[in-house]
Design brief:
About 70% of the residues lie in helices and about 0% in strands. The chain contains eight helices and no strands. Helix 3 crosses helix 4, helix 3 runs parallel beside helix 8 and helix 4 runs parallel beside helix 7.
Length: about 140
């Protein structure tokens, strides 16, 4: 982390440093920890499930598929998005409760790189949703093994 900070311009560091001295809300810290550790855990789970796969990134494609399914209450997206899906994407400040904007955003998102898609979904989930998803992923791996 220090290496990254050293590469930043001095004027940017001067603006960032004061934030490092202020306390952050517990909810924010919990959300950040949930994002970081949860993503690490879920990617490890999916990598383990698809370890023997011959295709590169197969684990990531299954993960994004399952993230879409989870967000849409396990309803096929070809039949449209459910209220839960729109609720999750409405958390993006740029898409606030606008279904047509969300639909256009998701179409563009599907064309983007799989890691970006995973990061966006994982970032929009609440810590509770991440925990629920990881619980389901853990059940899947127990079934496979």
């Amino acid at each position: 982390m220090c290496d990254i900070i050293r590469r930043l311009p001095d004027d940017l560091i001067i603006r960032i440093i004061p934030y490092t001295y202020s306390f952050q809300p517990k909810e924010l810290i919990h959300d950040i920890n949930s994002y970081f550790y949860g993503k690490k855990m879920v990617t490890t789970i999916y990598c383990g499930m698809w370890f023997d796969s011959y295709e590169d990134n197969n684990d990531k494609y299954w993960l994004i598929n399952d993230l879409f399914a989870f967000a849409n209450d396990y309803n096929p997206t070809m039949f449209g998005y459910k209220k839960s899906f729109y609720n999750i994407f409405s958390r993006n400040i740029m898409l606030k409760n606008n279904e047509s904007k969300i639909n256009n955003y998701v179409i563009r998102l599907e064309d983007s790189e799989v890691n970006k898609q995973i990061n966006i979904f994982w970032g929009l989930f609440t810590p509770e949703e991440r925990s629920d998803f990881m619980e389901i992923a853990n059940m899947k791996i127990r079934i496979i093994n």
